[in-house]
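stage 2 :: seqdesign
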């Protein structure tokens, strides 16, 4: 998704070596992955559900893929745990969680808003101080893309509860991301 967030500032403030995002979108516009590639993260991962974005990103970012700096993964972030089996995640990672299904024509997804599964995958990592950014708070706190499988929960509070169970020292701030709305990203760090 297009973004204005300063990943570089966050990377250096927290000494993040790697970057992992869920949900790529169109690689021809100013998306978060493109911005992250311009920063000196050692390894970058992008987990994307839609073939068209995976295919376009594979072409657009071929150089980074060929030099093993970037891995674009075709998959559903409801199964994110399957893709966190690299030793890279023993190093501090900046996780940017932005996967959601907002189009009725998209098929073959497990959850419309898989935040709970994404956070549980991060929780299962050995390291307990990764930086976590959750995008689109304005939607998560209202209708969460009509994700009904979790029942009647407060999605934001449930996310904070899971993050606090990873490490009770996590701090939570709301920050500006992409011009849609102020305080639209939850910034979680130790």
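stage 2 :: out
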């Amino acid at each position: 998704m297009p973004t204005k967030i300063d990943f570089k500032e966050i990377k250096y403030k927290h000494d993040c070596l790697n970057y992992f995002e869920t949900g790529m979108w169109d690689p021809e516009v100013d998306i978060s992955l493109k911005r992250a590639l311009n920063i000196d993260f050692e390894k970058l991962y992008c987990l994307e559900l839609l073939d068209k974005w995976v295919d376009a990103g594979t072409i657009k970012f071929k150089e980074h893929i060929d030099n093993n700096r970037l891995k674009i993964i075709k998959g559903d972030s409801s199964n994110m745990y399957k893709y966190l089996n690299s030793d890279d995640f023993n190093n501090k990672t900046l996780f940017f969680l932005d996967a959601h299904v907002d189009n009725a024509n998209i098929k073959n997804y497990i959850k419309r808003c898989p935040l709970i599964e994404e956070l549980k995958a991060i929780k299962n990592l050995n390291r307990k101080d990764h930086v976590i950014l959750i995008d689109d708070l304005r939607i998560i706190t209202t209708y969460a893309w009509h994700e009904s499988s979790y029942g009647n929960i407060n999605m934001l509070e449930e996310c904070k509860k899971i993050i606090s169970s990873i490490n009770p020292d996590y701090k939570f701030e709301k920050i500006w991301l992409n011009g849609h709305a102020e305080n639209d990203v939850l910034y979680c760090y130790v």
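stage 3 :: structure notes
- Strands lie at 18-22, 43-48, 70-74, 93-97, 131-134, 171-175, 185-189.
- Residues 7-110+119-189 form a domain with the Rossmann fold fold (CATH 3.40.50.150).
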